[in-house]
Amino acid sequence: MRIVFMGTPEFAVPSLQLLINKGYEVVAVVTQPDRPKGRKRTLTPPPVKEAALALGLPVLQPERMRSSEAAQALAQYRPDLIVTAAYGQILPKGVLELPRLGCINVHGSLLPRYRGGAPIQRAIINGETVTGVTIMYMAEGLDTGDMISKVEVAITDEDTSGSLFEKLSAAGAELLEQTLPGIISGVATATEQQHELATYAPNLSREDERIDWAKSARQIYNQVRGLSPMAGAFTYLNGELFKVWACAKPVEPAGADSAAAARLGTVREAGGAGITVQTGEGVLVLTQIQPAGKKAMSAAEWLKGSRLAEGTVFGEASETSGAEL
C-alpha cells in the first residue's frame, strides 16, 4: 500500500504524522516550494516539508503540479493512494487518475459549504458557530468530489483562525484514521455533494483585511478573529498603518447606540482595557494592536506611552503609508 501525501501548512502535519504513526507506507511527500517570509524575506520551507524531512521522507516541491514534469516525477513513486490536506493546488486529471484507489482530500469545512482555499478563516469571519472536516474523493473541480466522511467542530466566540486550525487539524487526522481502512478495503461509500448548496471561501485578499468601521462591532470582532494570527486586520491612524490583532467580545448595543453617537472609527475612550472605537453598530474595544514601525503589543501597554486622544478617528492611508508592518 503505497501512499503519496500532499500538503503544505501546519494544518496538514498531523495527518502526515498519523499515516506514519499507524504504519502506512508513505513513499513521498509533495508540498509547495519554499517561499520568502518576514521583513527580511528569508526563504522558508513549508511546515509539511520540515515534518517530512524530520521523518526521513523524500520531498517533491513542484512549482506547478499541472506541469508534465511534476506528473512524471510523481508517477515514479507508483502510488496506490494519494492523500492531500491543504496542498494549495488543484490536481490535474492525469494525477487524479494515477493511483488505483484514487485521491482523497482532508478539507477544513463541512462540504459543500466553504469550498476553496480559506474555509477556516472565512467561517470565523462570517460568524459561523459550527464547522468541521470533510474527507472526499478528489475531482477536477474545486472541492467538488464525492464525500466519504465528515466530523463537526464547534466554533466558540474565543476562537481565532489559529485555534480553529489546530482543532480542525487534529479532527482531520482522527477522521483520516477512521476513514482509511474502508477506502483501502473497498467498503467505503461516498455521497455526491448537493452542489446547489455550495458556498465558496476564496483565498484572502488585502481588502479582506481592511477594517470597515461602518460594519457592526460584532462583524469587525469576527473579522479580527478570522485574520489572527496570520495576516491581521488593519486600519489607519494619522495616515499610518495600524494593525488590530485582538478585541474584547463586544457587548450588544442597548437601544440606538450607533454611528449617530460619533463618527465611524472615532475613539470613544483610550485607557483601561484598551481603545474603545465607534462602529456602525455598537463600540469595539481593541486589546491587541500593532502601530506602524512597532511590534504587536497590548493596547493598554501602548497607551501608556502614546498620546491617543478621545475623538481621534481611525481613517484612511497617507501617501507614504504603504509599507507592511
UniProtKB/TrEMBL annotation:
Pinpoint the Formyl transferase C-terminal domain residues: 204-306
Q: Is Membrane there in the keyword field?
A: no
What would be one Gene Ontology cellular-component term for the protein? Answer: cytosol
Alphabetically ordered keywords of this record? Protein biosynthesis, Transferase
List its EC numbers: 2.1.2.9
The Swiss-Prot or TrEMBL record annotates one GO molecular function as: methionyl-tRNA formyltransferase activity
Where the record annotates domain Formyl transferase N-terminal, the positions are: 1-179
Instruction: Kindly state which reaction or reactions the protein catalyses.
Output: L-methionyl-tRNA(fMet) + (6R)-10-formyltetrahydrofolate = N-formyl-L-methionyl-tRNA(fMet) + (6S)-5,6,7,8-tetrahydrofolate + H(+)
Q: Which Gene3D superfamilies does the UniProt record give?
A: 3.40.50.12230
Q: By its UniProt entry, which Pfam families does this protein fall under?
A: Formyl_trans_C, Formyl_trans_N
Which CDD domains does this UniProt record tie to the protein? FMT_core_Met-tRNA-FMT_N, Met_tRNA_FMT_C
State whether keyword Endoplasmic reticulum applies. Answer: no
List the InterPro entries hit by this protein, alphabetically. Answer: Fmt, Formyl_trans_C, Formyl_transf_N, Formyl_transf_N_sf, Formyl_transferase-like_C_sf, GART_AS, Met-tRNA-FMT_C, Met-tRNA-FMT_N
Q: Which residues bind (6S)-5,6,7,8-tetrahydrofolate?
A: 109-112
Q: Which family does it belong to?
A: Belongs to the Fmt family.
Role this protein plays: Attaches a formyl group to the free amino group of methionyl-tRNA(fMet). The formyl group appears to play a dual role in the initiator identity of N-formylmethionyl-tRNA by promoting its recognition by IF2 and preventing the misappropriation of this tRNA by the elongation apparatus.
Q: What is this protein called?
A: Methionyl-tRNA formyltransferase
Gene that encodes the chain: fmt
